[in-house]
Design a protein that fits this description.
By secondary structure, the protein is α/β, with parallel strands linked by helices. It has 2 domains: 63 residues; 218 residues, Rossmann fold, CATH 3.40.50. The chain contains 11 helices and 8 strands. Strands 1-2-4-3-5-6-7-8 form an 8-stranded mixed sheet, with helices on both faces. α9 links the parallel β7 and β8.
Length: 304
C-alpha cells in the first residue's frame, strides 16, 4: 500500500504499538509495586550487628521470619524495628546501632525479604502479622515494654497491626516515611510515569488479582485512629516517593498523643543521623515514662 493510505496504516500500526507498550509498561510498573519486592534490593545484605560491635542473637519469630535480638545491659525497654519494602533487617543496622546504646532491639525480616523466601508483598496488610509476631517474641522473652519503629512499608504494617489489635505491651510507636493511603500513592506514581488514569486503574486491578488483596484496604490514615500508644510521626522533607504532606494527614487523624518530626532527607535513607537520634530519644523518653508511671499510665501520657 502506498500514498495516503499507506501513511494512515503506518500511523495506526505505530499508535497501536505505542498503546500496547504503554499498557505493558503500566502493568509491569503496577505489578512491581503492588505484588513483588525488588529482588536486587530485598536480598542485598548490609552486614550484621557484629560489624557495629554489637553482640546479638539470631532468632526466629513464630510465623517463621528471621530476626536479630540485640540486648543492651540494664535496658528496661525493647525497640522492635520494621524495615521498608524491598529492604531487609540489615538495612536498618545504623538505626539498630543507635538504639542499642540505650535499649534492647529486635529487628526482623518481613516475608519475601532478606533471609525469608522470595514472595509477594501486600505493602503492610499481611505484614502486620509479622509485627505482632515480633511483639509476641519480646513479650515471651520478658524484655518489654515495647516501642515499635517502622519505616515506609514497615511503618504501614505497624499502624495496621496496632490499629487492628491493641497491644498493652506497646508504649510508643514511631513511623517514618508512611503514606496515608496506598491508592493515592499509586495514582501519584502513575502520574509521574505519565500513565493515563484509566490504564493505571486497569493495571492495579490486574495486580490486585495476582497479589490477592485490595489496594484500597491499605489505609494507614484510617488505622491510626485506633492506635492507642503515643506516636512519633517522621518524614523526610525531600521524600521523592511519599509526599511529606502525608505525615500531617496522619497526625490529624491520630487520636493518641502525637508528635511530628520533619527532617531534611529522602525516602528511607539508611543512615540519617538526625532521624536515628530522634528515634532513640523517643524510646528513652518512653522507657522513662514507664519507669515513672507504669505501662498503663505511660501509654496514656502525652508524648510531647
Amino acid at each position: 500500500m502506498t500514498g495516503r493510505g499507506g501513511k494512515l496504516l503506518r500511523g495506526v500500526l505505530w499508535g497501536s504499538a505505542l498503546a500496547g507498550a504503554g499498557a505493558v509498561g503500566a502493568i509491569g510498573w503496577a505489578v512491581g509495586t503492588v505484588v513483588w519486592p525488588n529482588p536486587a534490593r530485598a536480598f542485598r545484605r548490609w552486614g550484621s550487628p557484629s560489624d557495629h560491635g554489637l553482640a546479638f542473637e539470631e532468632v526466629t519469630l513464630s510465623e517463621g521470619s528471621g530476626a536479630w535480638y540485640v540486648p543492651c545491659e540494664g535496658a528496661t525497654l525493647t525497640a522492635v524495628v520494621a524495615h521498608g519494602r524491598s529492604r531487609d533487617r540489615s538495612w536498618m543496622l545504623p538505626l539498630v546501632a543507635e538504639l542499642a546504646s540505650r535499649v534492647n532491639v529486635l529487628v526482623f525480616d518481613f516475608p519475601g525479604h532478606g533471609t525469608n523466601g522470595y514472595g509477594r508483598t501486600t505493602i503492610g496488610l499481611r505484614e502486620a502479622r509479622t509485627v505482632h509476631a515480633a511483639i509476641d517474641w519480646v513479650a515471651d522473652r520478658g524484655v518489654g515494654p515495647v516501642v515499635v519503629a517502622g519505616t515506609s512499608m514497615g511503618g504501614v504494617a505497624t499502624l495496621l497491626a496496632l490499629g487492628g489489635r491493641d497491644r498493652p505491651e506497646v508504649v510508643g510507636v514511631v513511623v517514618d516515611a508512611v503514606f496515608d493511603e496506598l491508592t493515592s500513592i499509586l495514582e501519584l506514581g502513575a502520574q509521574r510515569m505519565h500513565f493515563p488514569h484509566a490504564l493505571n486503574k486497569a493495571a492495579i486491578r490486574i495486580s490486585e488479582s495476582i497479589a490477592g488483596y485490595s489496594v484500597a484496604a491499605v489505609r494507614p490514615v484510617e488505622a491510626i485512629e485506633r492506635v492507642r500508644p503515643p506516636l512519633l510521626l517522621m518524614h523526610g522533607r525531600q521524600d521523592e516517593i511519599v509526599p511529606v504532606a502525608c505525615v500531617h494527614r496522619l497526625a490529624e487523624a491520630a487520636t493518641a498523643p502525637v508528635r511530628t518530626f520533619v527532617y531534611d532527607g529522602l525516602h528511607d535513607e539508611r543512615d540519617h543521623v538526625e532521624r536515628n537520634r530522634a528515634v532513640l530519644d523517643f524510646c528513652v523518653e518512653r522507657a522513662e515514662a514507664v519507669a515513672g508511671a507504669g505501662p498503663d499510665r505511660a501509654r496514656a501520657s502525652d508524648a510531647g
